[in-house]
Amino acid sequence: MSASDMGTLRLTAEAGLRLAKALNALGQYGEALDILSDARARSPQIRDTPLVHDLDVTRAVLYRELNRPADAEPIYRALIAIYDADPTLSRANRVTLLNNLAEVEAAQRHFADATKAQRDVVAERTRMFGESGLETLSAKSALAAYLSNDGSAALAEGISLHRQVLTARRALSPPNELAVAASLHNLGTSLDQAGEYHEAKEKVLEAVAIRSRMLGPDHPDTILSRRELAGIMMSAGDLAGARETYASLITSMERTRVRATATEEQRRSYFSQSAQTYKLMAFLEAQAGRNSAFAYADAARSRTLLELTTSSEALRSAGDLTGTEELGAARRALGRLATADTSQMNDADRMQHAVAIDAAAARVGHAEAALQSQHPQLQFSSKFQPIDRSRLRLAMGDGSALLDYIVLGDRVLLLWISPDGTMGSANSAIPGLAETARSYVAMLSAPALAGTAADPLADRAVFAWKDGSFRLRRIDEAIPDDAELVNDVGPIRDALAHGLLSDLPPEVQKSTRWIVVPDGPLAAIPFDTLFVNGAPIAARTVVSYAPSLGLLIDLTDRLKAHQSLRGDAVMVIGAPAFDRVPAGSPLQAWSALPGSKTEVSDLARRYRLTPGKTVFTGTDATEARLRQLDEHGALMRYKLIIFSTHAVVDPASSERNAIILMGDGQHPDSDGFVRASELMSLRTSADLIVVSACESGVGDWLDGEGAMGLPFALFASGSARTLLTHWSVGDQSSATFMMRFLDKMDHGASAAIALQQTKADFLAGRMGEKWSAPAYWAAFSLFGAP
Known about the structure:
Elements: H1 3-25, H2 29-42, H3 49-65, H4 69-85, H5 91-107, H6 111-129, H7 134-148, H8 152-171, H9 177-193, H10 197-215, H11 220-235, H12 239-256, H13 264-272, H14 275-287, H15 293-299, H16 303-316, H17 324-338, H18 347-374, H19 389-396, E1 401-408, E2 411-417, E3 423-429, H20 433-449, E4 460-464, E5 470-474, E6 484-486, H21 490-501, H22 506-509, E7 513-517, E8 531-532, E9 535-536, E10 542-545, H23 549-563, E11 570-576, H24 594-606, E12 615-618, H25 623-631, E13 640-644, E14 647-648, E15 658-660, E16 673-675, H26 676-679, E17 688-692, E18 701-702, E19 706-707, H27 710-717, E20 721-725, H28 731-746, H29 751-763, H30 774-777, E21 780-784
Parallel strand pairs: 1-7, 7-10, 11-12, 11-13, 13-17, 17-20
Antiparallel strand pairs: 1-2, 2-3, 4-5, 4-6, 8-9, 14-15, 15-16, 18-19, 20-21
């Protein structure tokens, strides 16, 4: 390669690196990672070691932002190996890499590996800064935390090291009080783990006092210590004290939830860290027999989505939106301050930074208030409040039961409402809940996916562990002697049904209509595949899902509002001409769907659709066409919108999950991948949006929000209900399922009832014995208004 070519390659990599860093600062981690991965793929020919180092370090940072520590780990190890092999390279950089490696190991709960790396960090920093250097004490504090989590044998060493760091920090002149508060908090946490509740409470109370005085009671660090204090009280059996502390915490979090963040993504991230407080309060209220548990449980979910749905409805009727530019500028300024690195600031600078954040937050508040004065119906933040039981009962409908779940690790809180309005609760525990749920879905879906790239059991198997959990493991992995191979889905189904349904009262179990509000790993489970009293729920019970009680009410109101709209009944877009994609297009990875083509043709005949107006297929099924319809307000005319095509799940970012149409081959913003982030900006007024595609309902679960990706985006766009899939569905069986489902809707059944009746037909073998297995019908689920 010539020097000129090499220079061009290096400049291209540098440009990609700059763009990726800019996208990272905006929170667009998936796109930044795509750009970096491409730059890194070209970099082996670049001899500029600092540039390659920067590319790799930034990639690792992005993986950590995306909560993918397992992907960041090998990057850090490879970089450390380079530094170990070349003693002329910066030792300080090596220490930073070791520190980051320890953090990603700890994030995977590999505390022994984290401890090993962090001991090296402590040794290096001691050599560089001395035993009592600030950097050394920070490294020792991290080591103590890893030790405290590495089993009971290491806990005592962790506590001892925390005490040493606390003593050293108190002895500094002048003492860094915020660092002292951090040590008090960390020591209290470890003492709580050791069952030393009295001293743990004493230490954390002192941390709360320092942080409240210096940072204020609503600062995230202060809230963290107050949350730890409440946890210690719960551990010690002081439930009344824990409840009082959690209630006070929630008041603070409600005050700071919006002002501490700028963008919706930052707001979601901030709240995901706080959602556990609301969940724990729900557990305490339920234990005390208080119906307020429902309100606290609901406050832990879908807050940003609720705000987006209510404000988007208001914005549509608001007309002139003077003031939005001022609000955008104020939020961006707040975002820059809120995401600034304060780790190297001294106490005075941190206090000044906090004042600046408060001032910027006030400007955001003024801008929001100005907009709301013009448009009183705008709602920028949802407030914690009791559930309106009368509106909830109307949203549920006659004869319906509601099952509202909250998950904390393996603990499950079930809040239920019977058809007559009686409320109740139950606690249970399902060993290894997340792994058990994943194993269940793998075994459930495998028959439809056998022999395909998506087959979850192609190189894996499900094993039953001695603790009662079920886990999916690679066949070539070493399996403990006390683990048994599971060849039938029945034992997993029974374990889940026992933990999730056995405590329901008879009147709820017998109800023929359930509305399920799932949480965490439960969102992946099709509840109608479980058994009650020896029979599958799908055979007799209508099941639909709601993101939260607040959204159930809001989306039901939205559905009623849509009834007054007039316009075209149905729009279909699908069966893109993937066989005519230009060479080099990323769409070449997607094959034509014969079943989709048949489905679109059948739908066009069924509803007498007009090509180019109400049905778009082949080379007309494009992202550009969809955007054009939106720009002209045409999407708001349709009560039923059906996408019949491929969907893609992006493991890097749920907001990049996409419905795949044709691109125009010229513009990057019309590449055919209609991503969740783009769907959110569409304006629809649909009673129902159907995405007849593989894994359209799959998305990361974010505490405080729920299922991200397409479900979140379609609700934000204006839909009242969406029909999506949990896993890849066969082309032909999917088309047959959709036609049966629409037949029943055309004969007057509601979407929820039509879905249950279609599933019952498949289950009973009326559509063919092969398709009676849950793999072919259980993937379809209705989200939103029942």
